[in-house]
Amino acid sequence: MKRVTGIGGIFFKAQDADRMRAWYKTHLGIDVQPWGGAAFSWTDDAGKPTGGTTIWSISGPGEDPPPASSAPFTINYRVADVEGLVKVLREEGCNVVGEVQDSEYGKFGWVLDPEGNKVELWQPPPGQ
Questions:
Q1: Does the pLDDT value for residue 28 go beyond 80?
Q2: How far is it, in rounded angstroms, from Cα 107 to Cα 121?
Q3: Which fold has domain 4-43+51-123?
Q4: Is 27 exposed, middle or buried (0-12, 13-18, 19+ CB in 10 A)?
Q5: First to last CA, the chain
Q6: pTM summary value
């Protein structure tokens, strides 16, 4: 079974999210949008778009905190079969959090790594 195929997004918490967003926009040139993050479009070696994005986002205290983890970040990994992978992770004794959720953005599953960091598994919707 193929497991992780790429990174779908990086999400982290900050004590002062507006200040952090402004710093990243000013000093690193990240095009922070009003929703609190940016979308990086994928390209091939020649710079031609390949049809995917990686999301980068900062949230403040009380704004959509990562459940079941005290870590200030969540990395979202792209996978081909989230339900199959979650099943295998459970069989391997991993700490799977909750059940797979299906939404318009795809299917999501979660597992905690050995240090309690939340790992998000994302299966994009068909055609993405």
A1: yes
A2: 8
A3: 2,3-Dihydroxybiphenyl 1,2-Dioxygenase; domain 1 (3.10.180)
A4: exposed
A5: 20
A6: 0.79
